[in-house]
Amino acid sequence: MSEMKRVNVHIPKEYYESIMEQGLKLSGVIREALEDQLNPNTITLSVSKKTHKIYMELFSTTDCNDKDFEPYLKEALQKFVTDIIQKRSDTLQSIKEELEK
pLDDT tens for residues 34-73? Predict the structure, then answer.
């Protein structure tokens, strides 16, 4: 990780309270948001509230970062692609069988 810089940030009180209620560290939330905004290699996923909460807890309370997570994401993508290929193949096979009747 690169050298860090300490800054003061003003945010709405309700944002602060929401982050504290979730048990998250504000610095982790801010770092993650900045990285998402500034990194050209960032992807954005829409997930359930539960998955989002788990992700935020994990990455705001550990020394892990997205690079640590990337091998697991690639593995999930490989499984997803395999599933899509299988489903499409099954669908095409069904269409072929219908055409042969």
Answer: 888 888 888 888 999 999 999 888 888 888 888 899 999 9
Domain boundaries, the chain: 1-64, 66-101
- Residue 75 backbone dihedrals phi, psi, to 5 degrees: -65, -45
Residue 3 amino acid letter: E
3-state percent helix, strand, coil for the chain, nearest multiple of 5: 70, 0, 30
pTM value? Answer: 0.55
Residues 6+ apart with CB under 8 A from 28: 56, 59, 60, 61
Read off the amino acid at residue 100.
Answer: E
Q: State the DSSP code for 63.
A: S
Q: Do residues 59 and 32 touch, judged by C-beta distance below 8 A?
A: yes
